[in-house]
Specification:
By secondary structure, the chain is an alpha+beta fold. Among the domains are: about 5-60; about 180-405, Orthogonal Bundle (Transferase(Phosphotransferase), domain 1); about 405-450, no CATH class; about 470-680, PAS domain (Beta-Lactamase). It is about 40% helix and about 20% strand. The protein is built from 24 helices and 26 strands. The strands form 7 sheets. Strands 15, 16, 17, 18, 19, 20 and 21 form a 7-stranded antiparallel sheet that branches. It has a 5-stranded antiparallel sheet with strand order 3-4-5-7-6. Strand 13 (about 520) and strand 14 form a beta hairpin. The longest helix is centred in the middle third of the chain and has 63 residues, at about 435-495. The protein is elongated and about 115 Å long. Mean pLDDT is about 80; it is low at about 55-95, about 275-285, about 355-360 and about 435-450.
Amino acid sequence: MLTEAMKQNITSLSLSELESLCEEYLAEHGEHTEEQFISHLYGSKRITATEFKNIQTHERIDLTSIADISDIKDITGKHKIAPEPNSIEIDGTYIDNEDYTVLESIDEGAMGEILIARDNKLNRTVAYKKIHPHVAQIPSYLGRFYMEAQVTAQLQHPNIVPVYGLMASGAEVGYAMKLIDGITLKDHIRETQEQYVNHGEPDEHHTLHARLEHFLKVCDAMHYAHRKGVIHRDLKPLNIMIGPYNEVYVMDWGIAKTVEVDKSTFGDKTVLVGHEEVDDEDKTKMGQVMGTPAYMSPEQAEGEHDILDHRSDLYALGLILFELVTFHRAINGKNTDEVMMKARRGHIDPPPVYGKQEVAQEQLLAIVKKATQYMPEDRYPTVADFADDIRRFIHGEAIKARPESRKQKIMRWVSHHQKAAVNIMGLSLLGSFALVVAALFMQVQTMKETQSEDLKTNKFITAVSTKSQQIDTQFLKYEGILEGLAIGSKNLLNQGNRDESKYYTSETIAIPGEGPADYKFSDVYGLPISVDYHVYKLAPDVNEFYVKETLERLNPLRHSFKSLMLKSYKEDVPPDDNKMAHDIIMNEGLPIVWAYVGLEEGIHAAYPGKSGYPDAFDTRQRPWYRSSMKNTGISWLKPYIDVGGRGLLLPCTTPLFDNEGKFIGVAGVELTLDFIKKKLMPLFVDGLEETYLLNEKAEIVVSSADKFASYAIGTLINSTEELDLFPNEYVVNKVSRGQSGHYFYIERGREKVIAYYKLNSTGWYYVAKADAEELLNGL
């Protein structure tokens, strides 16, 4: 939040003092614009007038053309003329003495002050909100203050604080509104918690039912505002007032925004709120965060103000309901940055458990979960739908956030109609003892089935998590093998001596009588290979004579290649058992199918040794080589087509550097996608539909449904295809934020569940999708 303008122009405070004041301000107010913070510093006399002016001229945000109060228009579009200067000053506050008399100040913030005043004409006490004169000097805030008064005045609802009038006098501007003699919802929640702690239960004014009735009034007010095309953007318990007669008011519309109303959602019988539009430059900028971090939707926390709609307020209401039920804030953090990070990711803290104090907590938290889904389209369509689900809960009906089975409906009816249930049971005793036993049996069975469903879901999630850990372990193992190859190659290239024993190129390895003695056809590879030797393939422009020294330096790699690749086998292979090594590599196969070193000199050293390279093959043009040049360590790259006929390969590579840090080449090992699909990814659970391996961008690297094409030996394609994005947007967003978890949703009328867990080695994800009904019927 600290800008260069602040750092350069504020000299009366040290940087650490300025940062500390900024942190305190954010924690208290939640606003995230530079101008508000500057105004706060000036208003609290922490910076001088010169510093304040210098910052404004250094980096002025000219958001509106309003020059003074006489330029402001009223709701009807007519100019509001400032009254003659016949006002008086009371405690530094200028208001027209014919209309209002200031009695006392009740609250003051960075932007303005709220006072208690006497309405001289109607002989009533009112609240009077004014903007600080130095803040009014900033045109954008003067315009916003006027818009707040306009918008609030037009929202004529019993649960929205009414505005009585807008006054202007000289350099001062403010508006009068109803004075609420009550407490905030924040205080009400605190009182409830204290009653539980001190007395074990709340009084009649603080019961769950009473709290929900207060909250439903807030929901009604917000649905009304949304129908009028207004979103609040700063809903929180502190901005909700409860009066002595259970009146409830939504307060502080200071950063409210007018939006287009979706007539398909709200209908077309509505009159939108109007206000004098400011210039485009005065609209909230993308990326500029406004509101209170602990009550922001993910899209608001990301600064995406151009796409905010009523569902952002709905998200905030969900967070407030969480607090109303659990007495704890839904998003907490050690500092503002941590809270903002959680808000952006849509992360809500686990609820505390209150046992018998709040037996209904689970159902209400299901409503909270629905209202606070990361994707707006996954939330309730409107606040009215959200409120309806809360009313269903109050009336003992099934909530839409958690559909019930037939047996769960019976259990809910019994719990909400205990007297009737007792009567029925009494009659059953007189009529048929068997019916009572059957009813009790059904209740017990229902409880068991509910527990069983939760257990089965947990088993599925655990199975996916365990499988992801198994895959992660294997990938780490392959990375360790690559690291050994890279270290050995760099040592030979930087410090090794020439090994003048025989080596083989892609041309000489297949010559009868001249190639290696073990050069034979392998059923696994589908071509002749050598287990004892690697092979060199030189780029078309490279003469063997000029690179012979490097080839001889790398000659000892033939031993390293074999021993390292054998480490990928499912069990240890004795280093001196050459026959076993040959049998495994030639006939059984290894997870790692190729290992290689490619050099800037145009040399490609590959194992096992083989021929069949196209004449145009150049290691420096291969997809894995070009991608690795941009990296600094081990990386898993996009699949590409193998020139050796093994189909699509998944390369794991690392760049090589000489002793001076100069890039000299790439080392790599490769697995086939077919091996990953058939050996690493399978999961055996009922209802499973498909498994996936996603990269950190949520692109599908391999799927259990993939059918891989075959490619002839010598197929040379020096490019990779673009990967498809995972088709579920919710999971895509979670993966892009590095989160693991699971997600229930409806697809073509069937409930599905997706579990997604991160592989720490690669940053990729193992994902499993199952049919929820089949999953719960099985396992």
